[in-house]
Amino acid sequence: MNTAFRLPALLLILMATALPVVAADAARPDWLALATQDPQSRALLEKAIGKLGLKNFDDLLAYVKVCDLSKVSSTLTGQTDQSSQTVVEYATEAELRSGKEPGDYFQGRLAAEQAELHAHGARVIDVHPDYVREQFWVDPSICLRAGMAPMQTYETFIHELTHLVETDQLADEDMLAYVDFDDYALQTILAPGSEVDAFIAGTAAHS
Question: Measured at the alpha carbon of residue 59, what is the angle toward residues 117 and 110, in degrees to the nearest 5?
């Protein structure tokens, strides 16, 4: 099962670096087939393909890898990597002199940036006459531990997919709202799509 607390971003980056990927079968794997047959898991799959803008369940395979996680942790069964990127686009002198609204000349440029980043969502942070700042949610990935039994892989997949689907990658987080580290840890694991939700979903899938 996954770690109980969300680890600091830098540690997660270090953990996710250079994980050896094990080749998977070209056919639909057992864990995905199981997910499509269970109503609750199927509903989660539907939300996932909607959030990622995919056409069908099999397209999710592009975001899931079977990895050797033993070098990261002896007990870690899965890991979800999600990140966002802030982009600043500046207006040219000609655009500023054109008299157009900022949205007119920034819209196409941000759309191109979003496509290049393989972004699935965006949030405008600032709009000024001479620049716009926007946050993009970029391609996520799910890593499943190699060598697990089909049911354990299925449970882990649903656990990790819950993180991907139910977490708002573009949400602002006010660190001053927490009383102390214990309060932060508690609120983090109770947040939508975090460890409690993922544990419940994974356990229900296995039962």
Answer: 20
What total number of domains does the chain contain?
A: 2
- Residue 11's CB is within 10 A of a number of other CB atoms, namely 10
d(CA 86, CA 19): 26
Q: What is the pLDDT along the chain (207 residues), one digit of tens a residue?
A: 443 333 343 333 333 333 333 334 446 899 999 999 999 999 999 999 999 999 999 999 999 999 888 878 888 999 999 888 898 888 888 877 887 776 777 888 888 888 888 888 888 888 887 888 999 999 999 999 999 999 999 999 999 999 999 998 888 777 888 889 999 888 888 989 999 999 999 999 977
Is 54:60 a contact under the CB 8 Å cutoff?
A: yes
Residue 110: give the domain boundaries.
84-137
